[in-house]
Amino acid sequence: MDNFLTVADFNRVLLSTVWLGPCYCLFGAIATLPWSTALTRGQGPRLPAYLNLLATAIACIHGGIAFFATYGRAVTYIDWPWLRVGDLVLDFSLAISPVSVGAMELIALLVFLAQLYALGYLEKDWGMGRFFGLMGFFGFAMTGLVLSDSLLLSYALLEMLTLSTYLIVGFWYSQPLAPKAARDAFWTKRVGDILMLMGIIAVSSLAGTLNFVELEAWAATNPLPAWQATLLGLALLSGPLGKCAQFPLHLWLDEAMEGPNPASIMRNSVVVGCGAYVLVKMMPVIALSQTALDVAIALGTLTAICASLVAIAQVDIKRAMSHGTSAYLGLVFVAVGFQQHDIALLLLLTHGIAKASIFISFGSVILTTNNQDLREMGGLARSMPATTFAYVSGALGLVGVLPFGTFWVLYRWICEPELPLWTVGLALVINGLSAVNVVRVYGLVFAGERTLKTRRAPEMPWPMAVPMVSLGILNLLVPLVMEQWQLALSYTINNASSQALSELFLVLMMVSGVSGGTIAGRLYFRNDRQPVSLPSKALQDLLAYDFYIDKIYGVTIAATVGLFSQLIAWTDRFVVDGAVNLVGLATLMGGEGLKYSTNGRSQAYVLVLLIGIGAMVLLASLSSLGI
Q1: Least CB-packed of 20, 144, 221, 459 within 10 Å?
Q2: Which helix (H) or strand (E) holds 231?
Q3: Strands (DSSP E) along 397-483, which ranges?
Q4: How far apart are CA 229 and CA 458, in angstroms?
Q5: Could you tell me the pLDDT band of residue 4, with boundaries at 50, 70 and 90?
Q6: Res 218 pLDDT > 50
């Protein structure tokens, strides 16, 4: 009997090997490289796709079993020492907890469904092998990031996500808009990443460590003066601003919709959430400065309101929902600003699953109609039932409607006794605008009469239908999943406000969602419906063009950088090069002039040297005397 593993031994093995979860995805990505670089020809792109599917499936199975092994247990840390110099200790540390392992399992599951979906979506694309390799790197970076307990390791994995985003957005590089969108996404994130790297270097020298658990203990001692804590908090905040597409680094997510839709599924659900996850982990350090927390609240509020308004004026089906992603991540920033990490994590959970279900249905619509314009769609509910189910399920999960997931998170949030009253209004407004947007898209795409583009629109084959239906069912099960996670998070609902006030908030939450949906239904379920129904053309253009922020950037930041670069170029050409050329010309002319004074008499050379030295001594003497 001693030769058999006990349950305790099996759990111990699972806990010690959880780090293999990201490695499975990495193995699939590396195995795809021969196909990605065209070294293997004649075998087609399906074999690398199957290798990545198998690797991700193994990661799902391992992560699922490990989650049940970690359930109810204390956090376990796995440390790999990397650099120890003086008081600075840098380790690659992993935190094995129900939250981190559950997040890893959720990401692995969504990556698997997106990859299975991509089998049908990219069936005729010979770049399928390259795409699956990039998705493997995506999965490795995201699953490793949620396990990471090291700010250094998290930053490295965020950089891998940025590189993968650049490559996947520019996947169809022959299309003119794809490379531009990839460059914009890459350089926009670079702005926040550089500032975040400065903050990481600063906190490593101040705290002597970059492990999150040790940083939390260090931050509890309140070791920094106010100005230093503010600069540090703002620097660390800037990285997630770019990753989560928050103002003013938010324009890249809209342009990133040029990439293949299976990547958009991940980008709008969990990729942007990874930046917010790191933000939650850094919250104890950022909380050293109330100014930094106020900035997070202000930027999150501004992004949530503006992005929700912009979304209802878009005519591109993917862009209409990508702005909604920025809006919900704005609510996450507000929750972090109030130091409510439980609300932030649950918002990431419900939003991620709902948005994945919505975007997976969009892929089917785009593939079967060869169209992304809402003005040319309609009547797809009758011919595409699985696609419609996936969208409706995701829309219900995204909007705060009883009894779906986001409703319970928002209701729990607005019932917090310490929460300012204006935040209750913010949650209700964003919920109502989100309801307007999802019902508007449903009315334009799935309801109404068929158009020329949707007259012949069959349902997708099983590789695409299975993940769509699976995500739709998962959305319906989110309330049960949340209940389990609430236990894992020691999450207890504490309605300190009166029972009457709690019931009022419950009614207000329901009213905000239903009223938003009703308004959109009356506007967009008519036969003569328009894709955008706003009071004036000026307001419609203002929202459709994202408050003209790109043009404002063009005449301010871009123009300033361009003018500065022209000034540098002029200085380099006429000042630096001119000075160098002047020295060279003077040397040339001096040499040319002196060669005619050479007579071969050494007495004359010595006389010239003596005269020169005498003149220098005389000048030095006069200078010392102050003359």
Answers
A1: 221
A2: helix 226-243
A3: none
A4: 58
A5: low
A6: yes
Strand partners, 138: none
Among residues 316, 312, 166, 167, the alpha carbon closest in space to that of 252 is found at 166
Residue 150, strand partner residues: 211
Phi, psi of 438 (to 5 degrees): -70, -35
- Evaluate the CA torsion angle 254, 258, 261, 263 in order and state its sign: negative
- Cα–Cα nearest to 464, from 395, 398, 389: 389
Backbone angles phi, psi at 16, to 5 degrees: -80, -15
Rg (CA), the chain: 30
Q: Are 242 and 189 in contact (CB under 8 A)?
A: yes
Query: Rounded to an integer, what distance in angstroms lies between the CA atom of residue 82 and that of residue 207?
Result: 17
Separation CA 108–CA 49 (nearest Å): 16
Q: What does the alpha-carbon distance between residue 129 and residue 373 come to, in Å, rounded to a whole number?
A: 29
Cα 239 from chain centre = 10
When pLDDT is cut at 50, 70 and 90, the band that residue 224 belongs to is: confident
Read off the pLDDT of residues 374-401 as tens digits, 9 standing for 90 and up. Answer: 888 888 888 888 889 999 999 998 887 8
Q: Which of 425, 427, 429, 392 is nearest to 408 (CA)?
A: 427
Both tokens assigned to 11: 């759990």
Least confident of 268-277, 335-344, 403-412, 594-603: 594-603
Cis peptide before 403 (omega within 30 of 0): yes
> What's the half-sphere exposure (Cβ side, CA atoms, 13 Å) at 271?
31
Q: Which residues contact 59 (CB under 8 A, 6 or more apart)?
A: 21, 22, 24, 25, 108, 112, 139, 143
pTM of the entire structure? 0.85
Distance of alpha carbon 324 from alpha carbon 254, whole angstroms: 10
- The answer to whether 283 touches 336, Cβ cutoff 8 Å, is yes
| 627 C-beta neighbours (distance < 10 Å), count | 7
Least Cα distance to 317 among 141, 438, 151 occurs for: 438
Distance of alpha carbon 355 from alpha carbon 349, whole angstroms: 10
Per this entry, what is the length of the chain? 627
- Residues 341 and 296: their CA atoms lie apart, in Å, by 13
Task: Report pLDDT digits (tens) over 441-484.
Answer: 898 888 878 887 777 878 788 878 888 999 889 888 888 877 76
Task: Report DSSP state, residue 430.
Answer: H
Phi and psi at residue 92, in whole multiples of 5°? Answer: -90, 105
Widest CA span in the chain: 113
| Direct distance between the N- and C-terminal alpha carbons of the chain, in angstroms, rounded to an integer | 104
Buried b / exposed e across 408-435, counting CB within 10 Å, b at 16+? Answer: bbbbbbbbbeebeeebbebbbbbbbbbb
Q: Which string of b and e fits 88-126 if b means at least 16 CB within 10 Å? A: ebbbbbbbbbbbbbbbbbbbbbbbbbbbbbbbbbbeeee
Helix, strand or coil for residue 148? Answer: strand
Contact between residue 238 and residue 192 where contact means Cβ atoms under 8 Å apart: yes
